[in-house]
Specification:
single chain, 209 residues, mainly alpha, Arc Repressor Mutant, subunit A, three-stranded antiparallel beta sheet, 3 strands
């Protein structure tokens, strides 16, 4: 049980560093350094690395180490299409029963966006964007949808790190999509809300491909 817990600790630590951009795509990490970093034996480190390889996040390069995987254009298209299915389905299942309190929660995320609109920190902008989409999906009250979106957002975070981690280019349209989406929901216009949501999700793909 202890080894399993240590493996999870190392796994979450490595994955967290990848998602935070500590390790850039194609960077090499090795078992010895990780053993020293986490102060554990080789077994939990090796198990964590094997799991990350099985998930396609790392590639095992014999006699060299483990390389952070690049996300291909094809994978970007796939994850965006997957997100559209999840998020549109979630919104369609709940848009007719959203409460004023839930609408206000979305407004609050949008208001927070205003406080960082001049920041060039990609991580901050991405985190707020992610928060909005997860909040909207959560109103469907379906843990399987939440889990699927959380996992797909991990991949999208890696995409954000890979393609535009250096600096966030100001884009009023992106924040505006969220405002327009909330307004459409308030006005009881689900088809317009769906159209805006799809367009907003596809913006990541359109920026990079």
């Amino acid at each position: 049980m202890r080894e399993h817990s240590l493996k999870n600790l190392v796994y979450e630590g490595i994955l967290g560093d990848i998602l935070k951009g500590v390790y850039q795509p194609n960077a090499i990490i090795n078992e010895k350094n990780l053993v020293e970093q986490y102060q554990v034996s080789k077994t939990p480190v090796r198990e964590a690395l094997v799991q990350l390889c099985s998930e396609g996040i790392l590639n095992n390069i014999p006699r060299l180490g483990y390389q952070i995987s690049m996300i291909t254009p094809g994978e970007i298209v796939e994850i965006i299409e997957f997100r559209k299915i999840i998020e549109v389905g979630a919104m369609e299942s709940c848009c007719h029963r959203l409460t004023e309190e839930q609408i206000q929660e979305l407004r609050d995320v949008n208001e927070y966006t205003k406080t960082v609109e001049h920041s060039k920190d990609t991580k901050i902008h991405w985190e707020i964007n992610e928060r909005f989409h997860k909040k909207l999906c959560s109103f469907a009250n379906n843990r399987y949808l939440d889990k699927a979106l959380n996992e797909s957002m991990r991949t999208c975070t890696r995409i954000a790190n890979q393609y535009f981690i250096k600096s966030w280019e100001s884009d009023e349209e992106e924040g505006g999509n969220h405002y327009r989406l909330v307004q459409a929901l308030e006005e009881g216009r689900p088809e317009l809300a769906k159209e805006i949501l799809v367009y907003d999700i596809e913006m990541m793909k359109n920026r990079m491909l």
